[in-house]
Amino acid sequence: MIDAVVVSRNDEAQGICSFELAAADGSLLPAFSAGAHIDVHLPDGLVRQYSLCNHPEERHRYLIGVLNDPASRGGSRSLHEQVQAGARLRISAPRNLFPLAEGAQRSLLFAGGIGITPILCMAEQLSHSGHDFELHYCARSSERAAFVERIRNAPFADRLFVHFDEQPETALDIAQVLGNPQEDVHLYVCGPGGFMQHVLDSAKGLGWQEANLHREYFAAAPVDASNDGSFSVQVGSTGQVFEVPADQTVAQVLEQHGIEIAMSCEQGICGTCLTRVLQGTPDHRDMFLTEEEQALNDQFTPCCSRSKTPLLVLDI
Fold first, then answer.
1. What pLDDT is attached to residue 272?
2. Residues 122 and 213 both lie in one domain
3. Are both 49 and 117 inside the same structural domain?
4. What DSSP assignment string belongs to the chain?
5. Do 203 and 236 lie in a common domain?
6. What is the mean pLDDT of residues 289-295?
7. What is the pLDDT of residues 198-216, one digit of tens each?
8. N or C: which end of the chain has fewer CB within 10 A?
């Protein structure tokens, strides 16, 4: 864990603030790569993940952008309402679950709203390394689009294409942009679930391979839990068996019996709690694993996923 201080807080767009963080003792922060995020421990005890959106070579600060989402589970509201310049926060070292692919000759970056945060960092890194890319930034309006002026003044400004709902003439022609899939071209998308699904479904429909599609979700999709039932989990190392009732998660049940699994987002989007499955078939409800990885049924996210079989044996 790192003790950090909020160096500055700035309004970047309607409902979006940026927070510049530095080590409280003045030391350099751990290095990171484009697509990385940090865990931020908030004043009310919540832990939330925020993508880093400053240049990856900067070690004196981390910059995060936070949308004050009305549907928030409390994290963004806590930052917007309680955290000002000078505040102290505990943060984690960066982790990268959304890295740029090695060997890509060209990258297509798609950001929807606050999804610009990891995508902006990717643009910085790609530009600095001289790689070919273009950035498509979609938002409801110019007032809701953060960091636009920063991008327009950046060395890669000519790679930026903005698409605002209020300006129909700027509408994204997804078929035109994605109409020529190639093995060495990779796509990256981050933003609201519907936006991401549109981009990914369009790419697949145009012949893109799953291996060339990269995404990062900020929130899990709603799941109908009305038909959930109970099942059992077995701890592979000890043989202990515990029942998981319909209204509890595997992680919660394990914790009640003194078995703690590292967790962060608690929604199945960060992969922190990913656990190997030795026997049984998981009911995958995460947004972290790809469809191909889920089909293997050899790992799952106990923070949200359940079981299709009466018993899951876990490698713990």
1. 84
2. yes
3. no
4. -EEEEEEEEEEEETTEEEEEEEETTSPPPPP--TT-EEEEE-TTS-EEEEEB-S-TT--S-EEEEEE--TT--SHHHHHHHH--TT-EEEEPPPB-SSPPPTT-SEEEEEEEGGGHHHHHHHHHHHHHTT-EEEEEEEES-GGG-TTHHHHHTSTTGGGEEEEETT-GGG---HHHHHSS--TTEEEEEEE-HHHHHHHHHHHHHTT--GGGEEEEESSPPP---TT---EEEEETTT--EEEE-TTS-HHHHHHHTT-----SSSSSSS-TT-EEEEES-EE---SSS-HHHHHH-SEE-TTT-EESSSEEEE--
5. no
6. 88
7. 999 999 999 999 999 999 8
8. N
